[in-house]
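Researcher: Here's a chain I'd like modeled. Treat it as a single chain, no partners, no ligands.
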Amino acid sequence: MRIAYFIGCATNYLFPEVGSATLNILKRLRVTVNIPQQQACCGLMAFGAGDWKSAREMARQNIKAFSDKEVDFIVTNCASCGAALKKYYPMLFEDSDEHTRSIVDNFSRKVIDISELLINKLPLVNIATQDSVEPDAKTVQKKRLTYHDPCHLRRSQGISELPRRLLKSLPDIEYVEMENSDQCCGMGGSFNISHYDLSMKILDKKLRALEKTGAEILVTGCMGCMLQFKDGFYQKNMNVEVMHLTEVLDKKIV
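Model: Modeled as a single isolated chain. Structure tokens:
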């Protein structure tokens, strides 16, 4: 299977550890990964701000960068990037000629979230089980974690159960479902910047639900959500770690 990796700005510049975890997993699963050097921002921020001209320019650059590679899938670990590449690119070019729309559609159909890839396309059989860990490690207290659904993953891409299936399959993990786990964290891209106070009020509701779970780790699949929760944890002095799904999997896949 031939995979190309769309990194995304936030992974590249803010959370490189998430990118490393993603590549570590794919390497252990013996997947050949191509990373086009000419890839650009997904364009979602420009798209959301109404600057479709800039968004189209970035889309064209990405489509060209990845179309030059013969790959089966284009994987991303960012829910927002995935939504842009899958859903919004065809919208940007819906008034273009048939040939252009065909190229864009072919590109978007190849885009896949990392959870989709691991569950639906790859035989993820290398997750460590209780029987495979060292005897001394079996006495280690389980980590309690919960999951937050990114809007761009659940609503834009229809993905909610796959990340949970992966988390629940891990050893030494106690999974606890959070109340209203599918509700927005308040980040909303630039919404956090233009309406910060309201954004924090939305987050406060999520943090109260999180506290009820007693989770030590909050897992999600969106860099924007990670930034939002990190801000909230800092302000509320909460002893909770936010991690991307791939970071958790990277520590458990052997």
